[in-house]
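Homework help board

Subject: predicted structure for assignment chain

Our instructor gave us this sequence and asked us to write out the predicted structure in token form, then describe one feature. I got the tokens but I'm not sure how to describe them. Can anyone check?
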Amino acid sequence: MNDPVPSQPTALPTNVLKGFLLAAAGLLLFACMDSTTKYLTAHFNVPTVVAMRYIVHCALMLVILAPRHSSKLITTNRTSLVILRAVVLTMASLFIGLALQRMPLAETTAINFLAPTLIALFAGSILGEQIGGLGWAAVITGFIGVLVIARPGSGLDMLGIVFALGAAAANAAYQVLSRLLASTERAITLLFYTALIGTIVFGLALPWFWENKTPGTTEIILFISMGTFGGLGHYLFTLAYRYAPASVLAPMTYLQLLWAGLLGWIIFDSTPDAWGITGMVIIAVSGLLVALKSRLNNN
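My token output:
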């Protein structure tokens, strides 16, 4: 499908505070989605929970956005990569659901935040970027943070840690593909394809995993809210880049760790111990080193 990219990009307004607030709201919604996912995976199997998330997300886009944007939702320049990006996100969603089923919210979120560090490894071969000394320092620091969180005696489920690492790797691949497609595809198109492919993949799998368990009213509301949190969170975070540069927004993505910690405490009465908090801080530092490397490369 061909959709020519405008030769003259439109200048975007600059309002760093607005961009910051939009990103903060989007990150809070992501943490709410993960909290809802963790709660629901205690009552339903993970593929069912993830399927409901994507079905609600896709339905909302069709009802709200399709009448206004029509063909723009499906018109792409590099369809195969767009679909691959969506498939990779479905893998990340499955892994994060399996991890949340076995691990506390804050620790799972922290390990998933290895993604920016893994991107530093992928960048050399895929994006043609030099990893450099700062990049290697970020990679090593990030994995030290994971080792601190997953240390012997931490009480964390080892399989849950493996799933969280799988989610981080899939999320890194998703972000690399997002970067590759950013110059040729509309954000709303990318968002729709992630919802559509997730609905197809998990919708086809749903009959094999359905447990003949009818959700109650509260659970139905949570299923709907989970898809709403995900869709609206992605929209707000994408919109934030219209008002603030990536170099400003990248470090603040770690605000999601704070939201996850607060929600884990309020909803699940779970708080990381001192070593766990130390590991989270180390992972955050690794991500900030990646952001610093990116900023230096752009100057």
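Reply (TA_rk): Your tokens look well-formed. For the description, you could write something like this. The chain has one domain: 16-298. That's the kind of observation they're looking for.
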